[in-house]
Design brief:
Layout (H helix, E strand, L loop, with lengths): L1 E3 L2 E5 L9 E8 L3 H6 L5 E3 L13 E12 L2 E10 L3 E3 L4 E2 H11 L13 E3 L4 E3 L2 H5 L16 H25 L2 H30 L5 H20 L11 H8 L1 H34 L2 H54 L9 H17 L13
Parallel strand pairs: 1-9
Antiparallel strand pairs: 2-3, 3-6, 4-5, 5-6, 7-10, 8-9
Helix pairs in contact: 5-6, 5-10, 6-9, 7-9, 8-9, 9-10
């Protein structure tokens, strides 16, 4: 049994609980087994080399390495983590046995007859430093608030105030203005209707490029239009017979037509009010002086423009109402024509009739989709 003379160094010099540290033991030896073990560089050794059981309550040894540092000079490095303060001493380490285990694990042996030699490393006791002792702390400190960047508190308060104001505004908006919810629902519905119309027009345009018999062409048109109308007006047009198509569609458009009729009535009332104001203005002019007459003349010109604008609005509303009725009538006639093509054995389309029919369908779909917008002080749009 040979005890190696080592010089131990603790790295770092001051080790605290929980730190990873190394105990480096330098020594000189001519044992060929060490040379064979480190000929390819540092070698990791087994923890079985310790002669007695390790005390894991005081420390945890992560690894043991043998590192060459010159000709016949070596460093035995023990990497560990301490779990307590005060003095710690590792058990003696059988370096010869650990090297033999390493060589046998690699399928090698030492070169001389010293395989059975035992080389021991004795570890001196070393100390683990206490943070409280080094800093002179004798009592627990009170908890301190988290450190914040300058201006952070003001930003947090400002954000909180803005969020509270915004929340109050939203609540008031929802509670006091039911129109907001109605507007959102109408917006969503408008998007769905727009997508439904686009899909319908797209399918109709595909029929232009498809070679179909008159029977199949008429059947496809009815299927596309029925599906479009059923989604648009929420009525089972896929089950409606041709004779009832115009009447049912007019009934579904009743709300739109009623709005148009209401718009015309409002314009009539507005025109009547303007006429009364104009008559009153003329009476004032006949009984007033010349300055008043000039002012009333200017007012009369403005009133004439307003009356002309109202007349144009009434004309636009009346035209829109007529267009919707014609569109409903067109759909009914369309189904009559396609039924004739489907069920008559000698029926067929005239030249270019298919394309003209598809274009008329798209045009009348646009009319069915029109919704009146009433502008109190401006023109009327459909």
């Amino acid at each position: 049994m040979i005890t190696l003379q080592t010089q131990a160094v603790l790295v770092p010099k001051q080790v605290y609980v929980g730190d990873r540290a190394e105990l480096r033991c330098s020594f000189f030896s001519e044992y060929e087994g060490f040379k064979n073990a480190v000929k390819d560089g540092p070698v990791n050794l087994s923890l079985e080399g310790f002669l007695t059981e390790l005390d894991f309550s005081e420390y945890e040894i992560r690894e043991v390495n043998l590192v060459p540092s010159g000709i016949n000079y070596y460093n035995l490095i023990v990497s560990f983590v301490p779990w307590k303060t005060g003095g710690i001493q590792f058990p003696d380490y059988d370096l010869g046995k650990a090297v033999q285990l390493s060589l046998s694990g690699n399928g090698e042996n030492s070169l001389d007859g010293q395989n059975s030699a035992n080389y021991f490393v004795h570890f001196d006791k070393f100390s683990i430093v206490s943070v409280t002792e080094t800093q002179g702390i004798t009592a627990l400190k009170e908890y301190s608030a988290p450190l914040l960047l300058p201006g952070t508190v003001y930003k947090l308060y400002s954000t909180a105030i803005v969020l509270v104001i915004l929340l109050i505004f939203i609540i008031r908006l929802v509670i006091m203005h039911k129109k907001v919810g109605r507007f959102v629902r109408q917006l969503i519905l408008k998007h769905k209707y727009g997508r439904n119309k686009k899909q319908c027009v797209k399918k109709l345009m595909l029929l232009k490029k498809t070679e179909l018999s008159s029977h199949d062409f008429g059947e496809q048109i009815q299927k596309i239009i029925r599906s479009y109308l059923e989604f648009r007006f929420e009525y089972p047009f896929t089950k409606t017979v041709t004779s009832e198509m115009t009447g049912k569609l007019l009934a579904c458009c009743e709300n739109q037509l009623a709005e148009i009729e209401e718009g015309i009535k409002k314009l009539d009332e507005k025109e009547k009010t303007q006429a009364e104001n104009s008559e009153s203005s003329k009476n004032t002019e006949s009984s007033g002086d010349s300055e008043k007459s000039a002012n009333n003349g200017e007012l009369d010109g403005v009133e004439q423009k307003q009356l002309a604008l109202i007349a144009k609005q009434k004309e636009a509303f009346a035209k829109l109402r007529e267009e919707k009725e014609l569109a409903c009538s067109f759909v009914g006639k369309l189904f009559e024509r396609t039924d004739f093509l489907r069920y008559s054995s000698n029926s067929d389309f005239a030249e270019n009739e298919k394309n003209e029919l598809l274009e008329s369908i798209v045009k009348n779909i646009e009319l069915l989709e029109k919704v009146k917008l009433v502008v109190e002080s401006g023109g009327g749009n459909a």
